[in-house]
Amino acid sequence: MPASPSAEGPLERRLLWLTGLRLVVLTLFLIFTTTVYLRGLSLSSFSTVFSLVTAGAAFFFTAVYASMLRKRRALVAVARAQLITDQLTWTAVAYISGGATSGATSLYGLTALSGAILLGGEGGLVAALAGAGWYVLLCGGFALRLVDVPPDQPIGAYATRWSEMGYPISVNLLALCVVTLLAIYLAERLRITGGHLEQATQRAEEAERLALLGRLAAGLAHEIRNPLGAITGSIELLRTGGTLSDEDQKLCEIVERETGRLNALVSDMLDLSRPRAPTKTVVDLAALSRDVSTLAARSGRGSDVVVRYEGPESTPVLADAAQLRQVVWNLVRNAVQASAPGAEVVVRVGDGEASAVSLSVIDHGPGIPADARDRLFDAFFTTRANGMGIGLAVVKRIVDGHGFTVDVESESGGTTFRVRIPGESVIAAPALHAERSEHALEPRG
What we know:
Elements: H1 5-37, H2 46-71, H3 75-95, H4 107-119, H5 121-143, H6 162-240, H7 246-273, E1 281-284, H8 285-297, E2 306-311, E3 316-319, H9 321-338, E4 344-351, E5 357-363, H10 391-402, E6 405-411, E7 414-421, E8 437-441
């Protein structure tokens, strides 16, 4: 499976580190083999020439892989190819340094560790299978007389029969298996730890942004609300003066509506930036939802959208009344803004699982793109051109503070936000199957 775009960057960096590391290890090991193990052999001897050819081939493939890295193409395939050719290189080194009993077989485990770091469990498994395969082929070649002992090496240093190779093969394969499993485990733990660290970093950055927003909101709230109050009062006096034409009355309504929107935005910013622990009391969720539905239908864009409540007459729950009202209001306002003129928004209180209660706000708007759903409740993230991305973040913070949950279901025909209130927060089992009340609020005018 190709690596995702988000994973290409880290994989490329790890490949660059592996390329540099393999050059260092290969160079040091070949120097050691040439100066210590092959000491005393001429440059024209078989083992020396074989060592130089092996080194040349390894450096050639490294150059090829480096070229592909620069083009940033097929990085996963490049990683797998490096692991396989590395194991082949160590097999070639093992051939001239003792065969089945060579100390070079320990490098199979190093490549398995590199594979686990590069590609996780898949990389470790690919490296282990490649190393085991090359090693068994080398041993089988000796046993079947398909591969001869290097002519300049002592025959007694090589095991060439299955009976002689059984023990070293078993030990080396077992060691490779153990190293691979440990490498995969450590790589997985590192991945999980890295993910937790990234989440913690994101939370710290978000907290810092919210703290900055809190200071900014606190400083501006008073300065903004005073002029808004004066504007609202002045407009109300003008509207009740009886001297305005119909057109002027409509303009006053627009000014009043927009000042209300600005005041709501300031309230949302304060709610988001200054979280408050909920003070839980008995709250009638059904009555609260009906009241919010009525208010939403008579303010803002509710004038051209039908807002309807469905549910029981009474649903007592344990919650902070003001904060729960803010949750319902923000969800309804969000649904109304997503709806076309003449559409319908349904606020529904219903049964949940295990005596729980659910609050659903349903609209018939265009829906939410799949790639945006995971970020809907992030502060300052919005899918609307004129949105601020604050309302749903306030909803998530309040819901989490109460121990409730909120989720979203969306398709091209509409969106449903559902808040689930667990059974321990429900005061009495509501008669949800009794006669249901519906309060349909039609558009004015």
